[in-house]
Amino acid sequence: MSLPPQLKAIQHHLRTAQEHEQRDPAVAYYCRLYAMQAGMKLDSKTPECRKFLVKLMDQLETMKNALGNHESITQEIVGHAHIENYALKMFLYADNEDRSGRFHKNMIKSFYTASLLVDVLSVFGELSEENIQHRKYARWKATHIHTCLKNGETPQ
Amino acid sequence: TGSVVGASVASTEQDELSQRLARLRDQV
In the Cβ-directed half-sphere of B28, how many Cα atoms lie within 13 Å? Predict the structure, then answer.
């Protein structure tokens, strides 16, 4: 189902969910949960958005039923730790590549995914100052390195 | 009147989504 333009802000979180469907279903589940909450705030009134969000809710309910034995899905406190660890793992991988002077698409994506997963952490409550700083840094790094590679420059 | 009814339908559907979300998260 195509994403209504009003919900464009959640497209990357939904893509991350799709990419983790097999690799890490808990990541996929919480990315969709974040997209659901953010989407409802963006627009749940127009028919096209309502239709999209109802489908997304169906998908979330199906996932929760199918993954009933995953503690990180049945217990949000476990889910919170899981998403935070995963985001940190992504961040540290990209940061290590960055500090070693290895600039490539994969590390850009890891920085960006880490920043998206910090967004996802907001489903569990207010973000910590550290979360906010990590997100800001990761998003800036992803953009900066992407621009440098596109222009044939070496990132600093 | 039509717009009032339309807004009421939208609001009910929105409530339904909110309720499903709360149930999903075991918050009810």
Answer: 7
Among chain B residues, CA nearest to A76? B25
A-B Cβ pairs (cutoff 8 Å, strict): 29
Which of B13, B18, B24 lies at the smallest CB-CB distance from A60?
B24
Q: Which helix (H) or strand (E) holds A39?
A: helix A25-42
For A79-119, how does the pLDDT look when each residue is reduced to its tens digit (9 = 90+)?
999 999 999 999 999 999 999 999 999 999 999 999 999 99
Best residue in B3, B5, B15, B17 to probe A by mutation, most A CBs within 10 Å?
A: B17
Q: Is A67 helix (H, G, I), strand (E, B) or coil?
A: coil
Q: Which residues of A touch B13 (CB under 8 A)?
A: 44, 50, 54
Sign of the torsion angle spanned by Cα atoms A147, A17, A122, A129 = negative
CA distance A102 to A80: 31
Count of CA atoms in the C-beta half-sphere (13 A) of A147: 7
pLDDT in tens, A5-44: 999 999 999 999 999 999 999 999 999 999 999 999 999 9
